[in-house]
Amino acid sequence: MTFEQIKKNIQYGDYNLLQKILGAPTIAAARMRFLREDQDALDAMIAIQENRQDFIDKYKSENKTEA
Asked: Quick check: 48 and 6 in contact, CB under 8 A?
């Protein structure tokens, strides 16, 4: 995935998660690391984006069985 593709797929809350994963002091610091193309920040953002849909699908399927 290219930097531009990753950047295009960012959704609300992704930088918040990135901050927690990186242990950055602020969301702005995490965002700046990502925009500077820091490898740890890029890897974490890719993981956030790749796992988002899996998490949503898993949650929906678990809730359907309870209904």
From this structure: no
Cβ atoms < 10 Å from Cβ of 38: 15
Please write the tens of the pLDDT for every residue from 18-53: 999 999 999 999 999 999 999 999 999 999 999 998
CB neighbour list of residue 41: distance below 8 Å, 6 or more residues apart: 18, 22, 30, 33, 34
Alpha-carbon gap, residue 45 to 19, rounded angstroms: 10
Q: CA-to-CA distance for 38 and 31, rounded, in angstroms?
A: 10
- The beta strand positions in the chain, using DSSP E, are none
